[in-house]
Amino acid sequence: MFLSSCVQENLDPDNYPEVGQVADLTPPEANFSFQQDIVDFTIFLFINESKSSTGQIWSIPDDAVLVDNTASLTDANIEVKFSGEGEFSVGLIATDDRPTSSEELVQIVNVIEPTEPIIPVPEILGGGFEDGDNGFDGRNFWGRNNSSNTIKRISGLNVFGRSTGSRVRTGTYSAKFEDGGSNRQAYQEIIVTPNVNYRLTAWIKVGSNTTGSAPEADEFRLSILNQTFDSYDLATWEAAILESTTKAPGDDFVKISVIFNSGDLETVAIYMDSKARVEVQVDDISIEVL
Q: Tell me, what's the pLDDT at 166?
């Protein structure tokens, strides 16, 4: 009888609490983070990290705009383009299904144009073909397969030799792609940022041994591969060429460049090969962000 009476009392509509009389044990906690775009420093992505919320309302400066013109200030995450450098207030109200339950957080965003490039320049190891510490051979950066110290050994790769003296543009050594029709190669993987334009540059010249025929335009090739490999196969590698250029070496060092876009890639490979009937020197490999 006692239990029945309690149940009936609890079910009595006259005893129900009114809206707002029961404390919200899990009220919304507003929180968000943001990150700057790697290409356009005035664009920021704002990420809603609120807890115990079912909705949100963003507030941005009057002179700022949403990057996506179909987006809304009630979206979970928003991408905002500011008018330029400066300090800007961005707010987020986190709400839940209780009409009186919400919390607002306002943060100051410092929009500053970087003094250094936002996009890191890829690192090329041994671009000058010099020796490293403890006599480390500079060719070991370029897929040399007959040395235990090679950074990445490429099976079947016929790596270049090295030259000194007047056949060097800078430093002590240059790469030597021998004459006589012997196909020589060089290979190195580099880390890139997706969807970025790059320029890869090398300097080449005719070597001291010019007893063979005059160089032809397609005898030295500088390429970017869109895949990485563990073994050399000419047909497979040529099918993976993202961009390449060919040039005949001159009596003095001349610059040869390849411009490419990384697309969705995070790693590409530098590939050089030569079928020249004269010796070719290569020096000072470099890369820049465009």
A: 85
Would you kindly state where each structural domain of the chain is located, as residue ranges? 25-111, 133-289
DSSP string, 93-126: EEE-SSTT-EEEEEEEEEE---SS-SSPPPPPTT
Give the pLDDT means over successive 10-residue stretches in the chain (290 positions): 47 53 72 93 96 93 96 96 97 82 90 84 94 80 77 88 90 86 85 96 77 56 95 93 85 92 96 82 95
- Classified by CATH at the fold level, domain 25-111 comes out as Immunoglobulin-like (2.60.40)
Token pair of 143 as six digits? 């897929």
In Å, what is the CA distance from 44 to each residue of 17, 32, 35, 62?
45, 12, 5, 16
Three-state SS at 225: strand
**3-state SS, residue 283:** strand
* Superfamily of 133-289 according to CATH: Galactose-binding domain-like (2.60.120.260)
Structure tokens at 288: 């820049």
